[in-house]
Every structure is written in C-alpha cells, then in structure tokens.
Amino acid sequence: MSCALCAPGLATAATPAPRTPISAPADTLQWQALAGGIRYANVRGNLTGNGPYEAFVEFPAGFDNPHHRHTQVLPSVVLSGVFYAIFDDGKKVLYPAGSYYLLPAQLPHRSGCEPGANCLLFQYQSDRFDLVPTASR
C-alpha cells in the first residue's frame, strides 16, 4: 500500500496550517536510518530535530521497543503491518493497518511490530520526538 498522502499537513496547536499544499509522493520520500533498523521519512519538520514534525516511521517486523514513555502526546496511524502496545496492566493491544492510537504524555508502555511484516506508521507531534526508557513493572 502506498499512502504517502494519507495525512499530510496536519495542523497542531504549535504548527499552523500551511498556506500551500504539501506533497509527499511515496517515491520522493527521503528515508533515514535510526538504531535497530528503524527508518523514518520527514514530511514536515524533523523527527530527530527540535520543534513540530510529521513523519512516516517504519519498524522492522519483530522489532520490540524497551519499556519507555514519551514526554508529549504521540498520535499514530498504522499504515501497514501490525503494531502493538503493552501498557502497565500487561494487556497487549494490537493495531493492524488502518488503526489509530494516541498515547498520552508520560504513559509508560512497551511497543513494537509483530513478526511477519514491517510496520509503517505516520506520526506527528507538536515538538520533537523522544523515547525515555523507564523501569518495567
């Protein structure tokens, strides 16, 4: 599924709506590598910089994030694969393609991509992305 324009130009409180179209066809995305085989392609801003961003993020199949939290709200749309989250109640919630979830700031959890297929997400925040390791319960 090619979905480079599923949610471009989402305005947040800190990101005013653009005055011109934002166009990000899949074949023009500039993918960059992160640790663990994760890749991202910025649409607006910079996921690893400061300030608001909107980006596609791809996790390898079978990838598991350690127990962590984010200092800001993190909305995500799952475009392919099956992403998951495990909250402190121990329940594993699966998010197949077409799912949306919003993690409140400071919520401890584990997350990752189920085996079988890479997970492609669209994420955006009103300030920079972070992943703060936490002790698991």
Structural account:
- With 137 residues, the chain is mostly beta strands.
- The chain has one domain (30-133): Sandwich (Jelly Rolls).
- 0% of the residues lie in helices and 39% in strands.
- It is built from no helices and eleven strands.
- It has strands at 32-33, 39-45, 53-59, 68-69, 74-80, 82-87, 92-96, 100-103, 109-113, 119-125, 132-133.
- The strands form three sheets. A six-stranded antiparallel β-sheet has the order 1-2-3-10-5-8, with no helix packed on it. A three-stranded antiparallel β-sheet has the order 7-6-9, with no helix packed on it. A two-stranded antiparallel ribbon has the order 4-11.
- A hairpin with a 4-residue loop joins strand 6 and strand 7 (92-96).
- It is globular.
- Mean pLDDT is 89; it is low at 1-13.
List the helices and strands and how they pair.
Elements: E1 32-33, E2 39-45, E3 53-59, E4 68-69, E5 74-80, E6 82-87, E7 92-96, E8 100-103, E9 109-113, E10 119-125, E11 132-133
Antiparallel strand pairs: 1-2, 2-3, 3-10, 4-11, 5-8, 5-10, 6-7, 6-9
